[in-house]
Amino acid sequence: MFLHLFRYQIISTFRDKASIFWRFAFPIILGTLMYAAFGGISENEMAFRAIPVAVVTDEANPTFESVLDEISSGDEPLLSVTECTRSEADELLKNGSAVGIISISADPSLTVAEQGLKPSILRAFLDEYRMSAKAIEEIAVSSPEKLPEAVEMLRNETEPVSEKHLTDGNNDPYVCYFYNVIAMSVLYSAFISLEIASRTKANMSPLGARCTASPVTNLTSSAVCLLAETLISFVGNVLALLYFMFVIKINFSVPFGYMLLMILAGVIAGLSIGYLIGSVFTFKKELKYSLMVGYIMLCCFLSGLMYQGMRQFVEEHCSFLNRINPAGFIADSFYALNIYGAGERFRNDILSLIVFSAAAIIISMIFTRRQSYADL
Amino acid sequence: MSEPVVKIDGLVKRYKELIALDRLSLEIYDGEIFGLLGPNGSGKSTTINCLLSLLTFDKGEITVFGEKMRPDNYSVKSRIGVIMQNVAVFDELTVYENIDYFCGLYIKDKATRKQYVDEAVKFVGLEDFTKFFPKKLSGGLLRRLNIACGIAHKPKLIILDEPTVAVDPQSRNKILEGIVELNRQGATVIYTTHYMEEVEQICTRIAIMDKGKTIAVGTKEELKKQIKNTETINVEVMELDDKQLDDIRALPHTYEAFVNDGRLTVKYSGGKHNLIRLMTYLQEQEINLGRVFSERPTLNDVFLEITGKQLRDK
Q1: How many domains does chain B have?
Q2: What is the pLDDT along chain B (314 residues), one digit of tens a residue?
Q3: Is beta strand B33-37 parallel, antiparallel or unpaired with respect to B188-193?
Q4: Nearest residue in chain B measured CA to CA from A7
Q5: Taking CB atoms and an 8 Å cutoff, what residues of chain B touch A2?
Q6: Which of the four, A40, A208, A372, B36, has the lowest number of CB atoms within 10 Å?
């Protein structure tokens, strides 16, 4: 009986174009769209690059020149300096090879061609230099004995802050979008489980009535169908994951085995949502679909699919919602794995997902095991 | 008489204030084609759903094959075949796969199942459509598939709930012939419909239902004997005055005569040669006639006489 039901569930699913779309094509298409839309703003793309600047010496200023040397050298230079004549500098500025022209003199000046982030950085740098120089001048006049101390203090103040990673994980926010795509995709398994619920219950469809009148229990047929769908959805999402990893080269930096575990848990959660809505409510199937899509979209929205900081916002203002949001558990578990590894946060997410799924399935089963109804 | 295959005793089913089944009692015996006839809303489908334990009921008891029918009585369920009013098949499975799927819910042995499925396909005449998907089938063929899915496992009791609704005449005949054949092969059949012609054509015993009650049970001959009317003669007439109409009413065995829209209708209760007597009188009166036809009473007449309303929705 198991093989009979299992086989036909697999066959009917693979012949249902909508089902195949949601399970196999949807995550890949959505991931590809994400890649196309946000692929250019990954962390690597946003890494700071030295600002090209032309330097013209009108009058020697050893202090300023040494500062320029300092910030245009090292591993992460602020400026990329080209020393040249005034006419060459004008040409570089004109053709865009330089963002600005710094003229060295007793009071260094800046010429920029347009407004923007990089000219603003140059302006801020020059202002900072002027303020520091002025302060040192004043200290030299008023308290010359404190001059070395003041110079040291200013030096420390201008030391660049460097980012230190606490883990080896990839904390690129761009990657988080792909966690959410997977979260959304696994939850869309709910479509098929809603269908399973409606066709195993006599009060929901003629097919349900025929199946309920047969000697196979609703629980048996539902369980076998859900098992088959777990397998199909799992394979579909793993294929999407492989596509993200190897075709559009998303660096998840999470152990593959854990990702498989999360996908499996997510698929079960998705199926349990659809099965719960399909089993508990008795209104029209179309309405159930609307309810389910609305619920999943809300879950995904609250988990940060549409707006990256949403989950944090919910955590700050209504943390209870994050405790009952399966999309949030899935997305957060990926994130936790990525940043902290398989630690407590990941375990809590997995546990929450299991508890959520178990509760949904138990409630559904209570409704499904009934084979006699007050109304059909 | 032997133990009934189905025994329904004092069944009461309420939907809030509405009483759908009102102390319904029925006995259906082995080898019968038992017709449940009644207008829409008379309680036929509710009876079937209670019988299958799909519906809970408020009072009464149902016994099938000598066992109390309960939702978890799988031994009884395995001997029943169900053909619902609405087609219940999987759109994604072919004709053959659908029959195989439902047969597989009852028959575990693969070889036996294959044989049964092949027989069912042949039985409903879908040999040329085994690889078709349900959406590609006409309404009639779809109904035949629906029947094949319900009977492939060779059930001892077959329940058909209005299987010919919206079916073309050719498919309807095929379906009715099939039901008789299934009965000939040993199955007891319960057949619900609001088409009296179908019931008259195939059923060995009939229960007429109205407002959740059986108002008459018996063979079609027994049912027709329960009413006064034995013959109705219709004659198209050009003109007929009141005296002539009174004379016709006075003819032997006549209990009703009226003219409506150029047609004289005369109803008789018993007697022989009623048509000859009527025609002789009309010729004597030199009344111009059109078409003349005589009708035996139908189940609709039975229903009409007992309830005062037509069986079919008008």
Answers
A1: 2
A2: 578 999 999 999 999 889 999 999 999 999 999 999 888 888 999 999 999 999 999 999 999 999 999 988 999 999 999 998 889 999 999 999 999 999 999 999 999 999 999 999 998 889 999 999 999 998 889 999 999 999 999 999 999 998 888 788 888 888 899 899 999 999 999 999 888 888 889 999 999 999 899 988 999 888 888 888 889 999 999 888 899 999 999 999 999 999 998 999 999 988 889 999 999 999 999 888 899 999 888 888 888 888 877 766 44
A3: parallel
A4: B101
A5: none
A6: A40
Residues 335-374, chain A, touching B (beta carbon < 8 A): 370-374
Q: Which of B271, B266, B256, B257 is nearest to B233 (CA)?
A: B266
| pTM of the predicted model as reported, rounded to 2 decimal places | 0.75
Domains defined for chain A, CATH in brackets: 2-42+172-368 (no CATH), 48-157 (3.40.190)
B310 within a domain of the structure (yes/no): no
Query: Do residue B54 and residue A212 have CB atoms under 8 angstroms apart?
Result: yes
| Residue B101 to residue A8, Cβ atoms within 8 A | yes
Beta strands B289-295 and B231-237, pairing class = antiparallel
Of A192, A190, A184, nearest in space to A300 by CA: A184
Quickly list DSSP for A90-150: HHHHHTTS-SEEEEESSS-EEEESS-SHHHHHHHHHHHHHHHHHHHHHHHHHH-GGGHHHH
Domain that holds residue B265: 231-296
- Residue B241 sits in a domain whose CATH number is 3.30.70.100
- Whether residue B145 is contained in a domain is answered as yes
Are B129 and B270 part of one and the same domain? no
Token pair of A364 as six digits: 């559904």
Residue B195, in any domain of the structure: yes
Q: What is the ipTM of this complex?
A: 0.82
Q: Tell whether A18 lies on the interface with B, counting CB pairs under 8 A.
A: no
Residue B256 lies in a domain: yes
Cα A254 from Cα A257, distance rounded (Å): 9
Among partner residues A12, A205, A214, which is closest to B105 by beta-carbon distance? A214
Which of B55, B68, B132, B135 should one mutate to test binding to chain A, selecting the residue with the greatest count of A CBs within 10 A? B55
Q: Which residue has the tokens 């949601």?
A: A22
The token pair at A158 is: 């201008």
Chain B residues whose beta carbon lies within 8 Å of the beta carbon of residue A211: 105
Q: Are residues B91 and B127 in the same domain?
A: yes
